[in-house]
Amino acid sequence: xNTLNSEAFxxxxxxxxxxxxxxxxxxxxxxxxxxxxxIWTWPVQFLAGLILFGAFFGHLxxxxxxxxxxxxxxxxxxxxxxxxxxQGEDGHIxxxxxTWRERAAMAAAAAAGTVAVALLFTAYPKLxxxxxxxxxxxxxxxxxxxxxxxxxxxxxxxxLLVDLVGVPLNFANGYAxxxxxxVIYGALVLWGLRDWWLRSRQAARPTLEGAPA
Length: 213
Known about the structure:
7 helices, 70% helix, globular, disordered C terminus, transport, transmembrane helix, transmembrane, cell membrane, NMN_transpt_PnuC
């Protein structure tokens, strides 16, 4: 895995490693596939996590552990979308808004998870370079992936909340390349949100008896 940790190029004064570049590109591809409700979003997300896990394993235990969790959630998402495949009118999964109970559960899990992970990172400084924002982004990503796996429109809102911290944090710490990637994430999220929102409204609209299909 030494090749993954070697420098690919320098941009904005940053030394971009192959693992960071490939992982970010796969992450963008996975988000685009999620927008299109393609089941291939999950293998791509798993592969991105696997690449980063291999790059981090052995010297950045915390980062490797986070990627392991991402891969587990990707497997869960693949299983869920396999079960729900064909429920939408176009043969893909059907999307919907979460119930208020589901929203409350996800918000509570995100808050509790962020505190727990941040305390873990604080207790073991080698696991993270900035415990609280890092914990927020990590837990927010997991919650977003869970909502995506369940076909919830709130998936996109969760990604927006992650971006609101991820973009300024990366730019403030001199990681302009990563910050730029998060900006692209944000644009994809807005387009995906609009698409899923409209589809959820179409799915919820009752069909009048005798109306043309």
